[in-house]
Amino acid sequence: MKKIFMLFMLNIMVMMAWASHPAKMNLWLNHLSDEAKRQEATRAKGTTPEKVGVLTLVRMAKGGSENAITDHGGFVVKQLTGDLVIALLPVDKLDAIAIEPSVRRLSANPLAKALMDSVRYKINADKAYIPSAATQQTAFTGKGVVTGVCDSGFDFTHPMFQDEFGNPRIKSFYDQIEQSSTANYYGIGRIYDSSEEIFELGGSSDKKSQIHGSHVLGIMAGSPLTGQKHKDYTGIAYESDIVPVCIDFASRNTHNINYTGFDAFSSIAPSDVEYLLANLYVMDYAEAHNQPCVVNNSWGGPMSFDTNAEDYNDAYASIQGPGRVVVFAAGNSGDQYLYHKWKANTPDTLAFTLSKDANLGFITFRSKQPFTLTRLVDKYREVDGKLKSMTDTVRYDFSKVNAAQDTAYYTEKTTFIYNRRNKDRYSFYAEIIKRGNEYIMALVDDRETGAIGTSHYIALEGDDDIEALGSIDCITFDPQDDSDSNYDELREEGGYPYSICSPGCYNSVISVGAINTRTWFENIDDRCMSYDGNIEETGKVVYWSSRGPNLSGEIVPTVVAPGHNILSALNHYAENQYKQSMFTDTLLTTSSASDQHYKMAAMSGTSMSTPVVSGVIALWLQANPTLTTAQVKEVMAKTSHHTADEDVWPNNDYGYGVIDAYAGLLEVLQLPSKIQDISTSQPAQTKIAISDKTLTISTIEGAGPLRVRIYSTNGVLVGEFMTDRVQSSFDLGHLPSGIYAVQVTGNKKSVTGSTLIRL
User: Fold this and answer.
1) pLDDT on residue 651
2) Most buried of the four, 171, 222, 331, 441, by CB within 10 Å?
3) pLDDT at residue 737, rounded to an integer
């Protein structure tokens, strides 16, 4: 590895103070607590202090009393399990609440970020339900299932969110970022329960600036559309009941309060616990209407050694159950070098880069023994109005951690000027915690005006192995400055480990990566386009799809699905903002309705592959409304395709493989165990359609004779026919209404297969 030689710089004294915090709080809550203390210290005399709350996951001690929360002005919003609650806590009382014996841990993080025609074909979703030419009757369409999407930028007027008669399919809508005084149980935002009111609303409160949610929702549950110049577009669960939630990706500073009990606070500092409430809202709606439910989350944030992962994992597990499934994007960070490990007693240095402007980006470290971290700084200091070149070596002292008192050592932020001409200012602070048998340290980027792309250097040494974890899209390691790493090997394989996003890293949820199934498509001008021209090989995980394992060493993602060049609904309210950007060449005309011209657009990411999987799960829930997340994973394990030359399945690139909607449906219905010779795929060159109880079989010349068998879902043969015609029709009027499996067997593999029909 490259050694960092002494640069031409002078020494500077760096003022660092330290404060004691309860180690029960994670990094971001410590940060909020200190900000509150600084603001209080500078508050003008005679002014009323602002009382800010933060939604927090609170793990109570066994037998602990909620008085530990309420006695300090906190408010219990929702009890998730016997010892895990969502609470609104006063920021200035976080330390006091954390030291209560009844409280084990407090957890909250900053807000996260937002991470089709042929999609349905590639995963066999189109063959799970074959619409007839006349009535479009189908076997499984998601009907009766609630499909929830927690996202931003919804356009509810788009034809993809209306049924065939033009009626809106949005059943309920929760806008968390709308500034409203209307009270609701969830404390923030506004709830709309009337489909007509939602349609008149037009979209979410951020509809003029964001487009992500409409695109995601169209993939998961969009209604069939006929394009003016292109073939039909259909979402996966296109007859499901849609319940979207508009969540905050924009890092707004505060939310207005609209719930009695919250009104003791002047504002709420947004945290990722809001997203948990968003998922809970969809689950509560489904429970109230006695329907199964799947919730899509195409967003995520960085993993961290500092995060109380057990609490988040348990929180998302608590809102699931029979007929309740939560799905998360794995992330788009597979091409980011985020994890590095130092061996014991091996001094080493590593460069890291501040990739983008970010709010509270960080590197976290963990080891079973105290270690020495030195930050090497090349900077300037302003002296008597002039900038002088300086050298700074900052060391962090583990001795200030008092594990017996359950404390964390925290250094105040130190600011450095890195660019003589532009006066780019970078600020860092550090937190050190003794938690269990591990020492955890966070080096936090809290820069002021620093430019992106600047390299910084750290040196570490310890008596035990030391792991370091960067922050997605913000702080990444520089592999070129790390000859000891397995950089070349990882790049040859196409992705980095430990790049998975949170909460997609938790085993209580379904986590989805992305493969490429469409290298290009024709845009509105009949030009061949691609969202990412660097992706050429189909059937493989794309280079930016995040990889596992998670920080516990468990395999993630769960499964993969198409996520490149995916076409779906474009929010027309915000369309003008994107005409000069990446969507200029990817817009496709679809339809005109209500004197408004609506379009489709191509996007790529695990944000797109995740609603594919969520829509498929909606089909499976229609077939079995009591499926649990564990059972869904079992179906995926049995039926997903293995498209790569991998020795071990599941693995940290593909999970169980590429999801197969049709094979999964057969497994959910347990048909392979009931019907010995049923095909688990559909015939490529035989079309099977049903209309008014008339079964029509269309195939190619030379396929016959065809043997057609019809089975009930309990495996009983209820009909059998032979035909040597290219097209044949059979009357099934004698069969009662229900679901049936049709098996067609011919003299070619391409004409042999099965499908499901509904009479």
Assistant:
1) 94
2) 331
3) 93
Domain contains 78: no
Do 390 and 358 reside in the same domain of the chain? yes
Residue 63 lies in a domain: no
The number of folded domains in the chain is: 3
- Residues 352 and 473 reside in one and the same domain: yes
SS3 call for 447: coil
Residue 281 shares a structural domain with residue 409: no
Q: Which bin fits 715, alpha (ψ -120 to 50), beta or left (φ > 0)? A: left
Residues 560 and 506 in one domain: yes
Beta carbons of 295 and 150 less than 8 angstroms apart: yes
Of 450, 484, 518, which closes a domain? 484
* 476 neighbors 358 (Cβ within 8 angstroms): no
Structural domain boundaries, residue 230? 113-180+213-248+270-333+500-663
Torsion over CA: 582, 588, 591, 597 (sign): positive
66-103 residues labelled b (16+ CB within 10 A) or e (exposed): bebbeebbbbebbebeebbbbbbbbbbbbbbbbbbebb
Distance of CA 615 to the CA centre of its chain: 15
Burial class (CB in 10 A: 0-12, 13-18, 19+), 427: middle
Residue 295 sits in the same domain as residue 354:
no
pLDDT at 280: 96
Question: Are 235 and 362 members of one domain?
Answer: no
pLDDT at 169: 95
Reported as type and span, the H/E element at residue 171 is none
According to the model, what pLDDT value does residue 357 have?
52
The CATH number linked to 412 is 2.60.120
Q: Give the pLDDT confidence score for residue 8 in this predicted structure.
A: 22
Element (H, E) at 488: helix 487-493
pLDDT along the chain (759 residues), means of 10: 24 42 82 82 79 93 93 92 94 93 93 69 58 49 97 93 90 87 74 92 91 94 70 84 91 56 77 94 97 97 87 96 98 91 86 66 87 70 59 69 65 61 66 80 69 72 91 79 47 76 96 84 67 70 92 96 87 73 55 68 89 96 98 97 84 95 95 94 89 91 90 95 92 94 92 93
Spacing of C-alpha 321 from chain mean position: 20
Residues 285 and 386 in one domain: no
pTM summary value: 0.91
670 within domain boundaries: no
CA dist., res. 634 & res. 619, Å (int):
16
Residues 180-224 pLDDT 10s = 666 667 778 889 999 999 999 999 998 988 889 999 999 999 998
What's the rounded Cα separation, in Å, for the pair 386 and 420? 10
Output the domain CATH number for residue 696: 2.60.40.3080
Residues 351 and 294 in one domain: no
| R_g of the chain computed on alpha carbons | 28
Residue 627 CA to residue 511 CA, distance in Å, equals: 17
**Beta-carbon-side half-sphere exposure of residue 306 (alpha carbons within 13 Å):** 30
Burial of 118 (0-12, 13-18, 19+ CB in 10 A): middle
pLDDT at 639: 96
Domain assignment of residue 49, yes or no: no
pLDDT at res. 111 = 86
Q: What are phi and psi of 14, to 5 degrees?
A: -110, 120
